Amino acid sequence: MATIKEIAKESGVSIATVSNIIHGKPGASDETRKKVLETIKRLNYTPNVIAQNLKQKKNRTIGIITEDLTIFNTPSIVDGINEYCDEHNYQFVLGNLRLYQKYNKKFYTENKYYKHVEEEFKMMKSKQVEGIIYIGCHCREIKCIPYDLGIPIVTAYVFDKDKNFTSVIFNDEQGAYDATEKLIKAGHTKIGVIAGIKESIHTQERLLGYQRALYDNQILFNPSFILNGDWERESGREVSEQLIKRGITAIFSMNDVMAGGVYDYLDTIEKKVGTDISLIGFDNRESSTAYNPMLSTMGLPLFDIGRKSAEILISLIDKENKNIDHEIYKINCEFIERKSILSIK
What we know:
Helix 1 (4-11) packs across helix 3, helix 5 packs across helix 12 and helix 10 crosses helix 11. With 345 residues, the chain is α/β, with parallel strands linked by helices. It has helices at 4-11, 15-22, 30-42, 49-55, 74-87, 99-103, 114-126, 172-185, 201-216, 233-245, 256-268, 302-318; strands spanning 61-66, 91-96, 132-135, 153-156, 166-170, 191-195, 226-228, 250-253, 278-283, 296-299, 328-331, 334-336. The chain has three domains: 4-47, Orthogonal Bundle (434 Repressor (Amino-terminal Domain)); 57-169 and 302-331, 3-Layer(aba) Sandwich (Rossmann fold); 172-300, Rossmann fold. The longest helix is centred in the last third of the chain and has 17 residues, at 302-318.
């Protein structure tokens, strides 16, 4: 691979001139600039980014630690971080804990896995990163991030209520509010809810959004229209059967997987989503486009969560004073309209 010295020699100019042209600095004539750039292209020169960063006493590298790269939300968040880093001349080092692959859902609630997280943070810091983004594979409160690393930390898709660091998550309440309003605007007042597990923060926040939408539209809240599933498809089938027997005309399912159970049950009674019952899901999983008809749902802003996380971290790195107030940023979900809503106006 060619060096900057060879580029200078081949072009008949000084090393300083080549360096200035590479970095877009003024001073060289158009003819000289053209000649140097042609030589760079011909000799396939690639700048030594590491050496440049060392001269600046900054390596412009952040660390990304994922709980599990195989979970549906993680790749899009990493992609959002990647784009922002590219735009701001930052690199990243990626570490994958593989917690879901190793322990399934157990690590969501058990703290005996915290040591793996702490070890990964120490390992990432040893790679001389200037800050770290930690990406959860299930949105929840966590208390496993070490606070004494001496570098900025941002978490994505997970949060710390004590605000020991800045977190970026999606807005559950707003998403449920918008989903319920879509059904109300289609003429529905008897809207059933297939909720998640009672203890889940997602269930609690989404119920707040559902109830607020009813209140804002002067619709009487009926607690019998809310039944809990377990986030899995079979529970959606069982709950939808009970809700339909209670006279609802529309269902808000708190995830797309349980929404699949609604399709299953309606098939058994020769009825159809979008024709006999309106249905909205949540998450915009790939399965939502495989249902017939395709499922209207609330899309999670995963890419935007990644971009915002990178923006916050890099702003913390670039500021001399890192002792700032930390926040929990909530990014709104996006309604994705398909064919599962029946207007009864």
